[in-house]
Specification:
By secondary structure, the chain is mainly alpha-helical. It has one domain (2-96). It contains five helices and no strands. It has helices spanning 2-14, 17-73, 75-86, 109-112, 115-126. The N and C termini lie far apart (122 Å).
């Protein structure tokens, strides 16, 4: 009988409200720790993905810069850069300059304007 009373006593202690409340608090605390760690890992993975994208774009930019450097170091590349920047020509060559119609309306631009603006410009051009 003594053994049964001892088991009953332990059951009463383990299933008492303070012990159950303490266990629930511990479970909630452990869950919050796990949730914080999960959110931290998720943020790190997101930042890692952004950094990997940036790394890929920087590697592509580095590749294009190296190709430009190779072209600049060759004789033809230097000549091409000089021609583009300084409008230089070889003897016997003709240079063709293409101008954008700055003073004239571009095709379709009048369609973008409203009715009253087009009317005003038409009247203004008469005088």
């Amino acid at each position: 009988m003594k053994e049964f009373q001892t088991k009953r006593r332990w059951r009463r202690i383990l299933f008492s409200w303070p012990v159950i409340a303490a266990l629930l608090l511990i479970i909630i605390w452990l869950f919050s720790l796990t949730a914080r760690e999960y959110l931290a890992v998720k943020a790190v993975k997101k930042e890692n993905a952004a950094l990997e994208k940036e790394l890929i774009s920087l590697e592509e930019k580095n590749k294009t810069m190296e190709e430009r450097l190779k072209n600049m170091n060759s004789a033809g590349g230097v000549e091409k850069i000089i021609r583009e920047r300084f409008n230089v020509k070889k003897p016997g060559e003709n240079v063709l300059v293409v101008l954008n119609g700055e003073g004239k309306e571009a095709a379709g631009e009048s369609e973008k304007r409203g009715f009253f603006i087009s009317l005003w410009l038409a009247i203004k051009n008469i005088f």
